[in-house]
Structures are given as C-alpha cells and as structure tokens.
Amino acid sequence: MTLGHMDILQRASKLFDRVIVGIGKHPTKRGWFDPQERCDLIAQSTEHLPTVDVAVFSHLVIDFCKDVGAQFIVRGLRAHGDFESEFQMALANRDLEPSIETVFMLPRPNRMVVSSSLVREVASHGGDYRRYVTEPIAAAIKAKLADAQA
Q1: Beta strands 19-24 and 52-57: pairing type?
Q2: What is the pTM of this model?
Q3: CATH (domain of 66)
Q4: Among 95, 114, 134, 136, fewest CB within 10 Å belongs to which?
C-alpha cells in the first residue's frame, strides 16, 4: 500500500460510512508480502481511520462485495495506463452484479506516479522508498531487505 492508496482511502472514508479494503489472493502475482501480512500492515496503517476495515478474500471481488454487503467498489486511477484495464474490470463487475457500482478516484498529483512496483524497485536498489509508503509498511520493507541480506 502506497501513500497514493492512503490518499484514496482517506478520501473514500469521508464519502462512505464504512470502507473495507479487500486484499485479494491473486493466483499469479507474488508480492513481497503474503495477503495476511498485507492485511495486517494496512490495518496498522489505517488505525487512525475508525471506519476502515481490512479483509483478505480469495474469490472474485464482486463476490467479496456481496459477502460483505458493499454497494460500491472504489478504485484509484493513477495515470493513462490504468484506465483501460480498470474500465474493463468495472464493466465486467457491472455485468456480474449490476447493483454494485464502481467509483473511480484520482490520487493527488504528487502521488500519481507511485506504484508498488516503483516502491519495490527503489527499495531493492537502496533508494529512499520511505517517502512513498506508510511507516508500518516502511518498517516491514526494511525488515524484508535485512532478511534478504542475511
């Protein structure tokens, strides 16, 4: 979770009574942290947002929304490259469950170029990744890097 994600999440928590961050188990993507670790780190990062919950799911996001009673899916759009895949996903979700709407939000301009891939790249080359993530996530990345060097 980057500060761009946090920006979207903080703003979404002002628009909705309850926000659930769904951490999907992706069958082909492998990040630095497993889904439960990500869930715990995001929960720590959002402790100051009392209406935000975090949960792991392993099925379609639209089915997760039905399970938790969500009426909206909030997605962040960083730049031109995000739009096509996000648009396609939103249309598929609408087809699967027309009662659940997708809402797109733009991060603040200074966060638009930050991605988790960028954070991993900067961190793995010894750069200052802390400027892009929350403190709990920065600490976890530091520990991962230390374990990799050990």
Answers
A1: parallel
A2: 0.90
A3: 3.40.50.620
A4: 95
